[in-house]
Specification:
mainly alpha; Four Helix Bundle (Hemerythrin (Met), subunit A); 7 helices
Length: 216
């Protein structure tokens, strides 16, 4: 006898119970290609600073800075292409950028390549944002992801720094490099402060939402 009615659908394939755990393992990996690049970039910071302040081998320092900029571009791309994003990589990438920027600013101020107030603006912005980290942690939020404006600002500054070294010399090369270096510096500082402002707005929004949650 035929029974009228809906035919039950075929059973769906079971979802692995450890899928979430697998994602956690992948997120916690340390020895990945992007992380190795970030570690190498961190190791280059003291070398870069020594080249600027010790023998003042500016060409070698520019090469180290250029390699750091290339690795900064590659580690994000490789993390997406190879599916190797990790929590450690999210911390190492901006840390390396900040260390290169701060070390360059310190060296440039000591060598009188840039005025102190330019370095104070950039370092002061980073200090303010660093103070936000324990506040976010208090409300249960992780560090916020790097904003695309922050990346653009970092790239502008990493282009500006070697050009500022060239502009600090004499001759036709310095004359050509000077206006380009100042343009990258102005845009880099402006975008850096703008990205910091957007970061602060996000922090305020998250804190406001967290405080309103118990009331609801």
């Amino acid at each position: 006898m035929r029974h009228h009615g809906a035919v039950p659908p075929p059973p769906e394939p079971p979802v692995p119970a450890d899928a979430a755990a697998l994602r956690e393992v992948l997120a916690d990996r340390i020895l990945t290609v992007p992380n190795i690049l970030s570690f190498a970039r961190l190791l280059g910071v003291p070398v870069f600073l020594w080249l600027l302040l010790g023998p003042q081998w500016d060409v070698a320092a520019i090469v180290v800075l250029a390699l750091a900029g290339i690795s900064d571009y590659l580690d994000g791309k490789l993390a997406r292409w190879l599916n190797q994003a990790s929590r450690l990589g999210a911390l190492l990438d901006p840390l390396a950028d900040r260390l290169y920027i701060v070390s360059t600013l310190v060296a440039f101020v000591l060598r009188e390549v840039i005025p102190l107030w330019v370095a104070a603006l950039i370092i002061g912005r980073d200090l303010v944002l660093a103070l936000c980290l324990p506040i976010l942690r208090h409300y249960g939020y992780p560090p916020l992801s790097v904003h695309y404006l922050g990346k653009a600002a970092t790239f502008n500054l990493l282009y500006a720094f070697p050009l500022l070294l060239l502009a600090d010399g004499d001759g036709q090369v310095a004359e050509v490099a000077a206006p380009i270096a100042y343009a990258f510096t102005i845009w880099g500082v402006a975008l850096y402060l703008w990205a910091g402002g957007l970061y602060l707005v996000q922090v305020v929004q998250l804190i406001t939402a967290a405080r309103a949650e118990p009331a609801r």
